[in-house]
Design brief:
Order of helices and strands: HHHHHH
Number of helices: 6
Shape: elongated
Mean pLDDT: 76
Structural class: mainly alpha
Length: 168
């Protein structure tokens, strides 16, 4: 009986060792293949890394419910905590000079979109470059609205970031 348990333990250890070897080999070979793809064809690498989005279970909300939810969320008045800490922060920030306003022309936007490869992953703003291909056509339509200064009341403040030209 003892010899049988020793034999079973020996086989279990061999199977575990082979499993670890196979796992190391597959990790190494996938890394090697991904490195080779990155050097040769980055577009294919990014497509191979895409994974299907995991969606929640349950029914999908209809458009009316979604609109009602967001309208109720945006229509609520904002309640800020106006405690004494706000005065401390205001006094600390009093010496900070604001940055000069940056004017982005349609030519600047078109140049940024032109330089961005449409198969790369999303940038700092979270939008894929593929979606930004039509910005050149949209900028002419949006210019009169922006110049008049009309902005919907429910629109959030835009996200500003500094995207330096030295690469990422």
């Amino acid at each position: 009986m003892q010899k049988l348990t020793e034999c079973i333990d020996d086989l279990k250890q061999r199977i575990a060792a082979w499993g670890k070897r196979i796992r190391r080999y597959t990790e190494r070979s996938t890394g090697f293949n991904q490195n080779r793809l990155f050097q040769g064809d980055q577009k294919r690498l990014y497509k191979s890394l895409e994974r299907p989005m995991v969606s929640g279970t349950g029914p999908v909300p209809n458009q009316a419910d979604t609109l009602a939810f967001w309208r109720s969320l945006w229509s609520e008045p904002v309640k800020h905590n106006e405690g004494p800490w706000t005065e401390v922060v205001a006094s600390q920030c009093a010496g900070i000079t604001p940055l000069d306003p940056v004017t982005i022309t349609p030519d600047d936007a078109a140049e940024a979109v032109r330089r961005a490869p449409n198969w790369k992953s999303p940038g700092l703003d979270g939008s894929a470059s593929l979606l930004a291909e039509g910005v050149r056509g949209v900028s002419h339509c949006a210019r009169p609205t922006v110049s008049r200064g009309s902005q919907p009341e429910v629109a959030p403040e835009p996200l500003h970031y500094w995207d330096h030209p030295f690469g990422s």
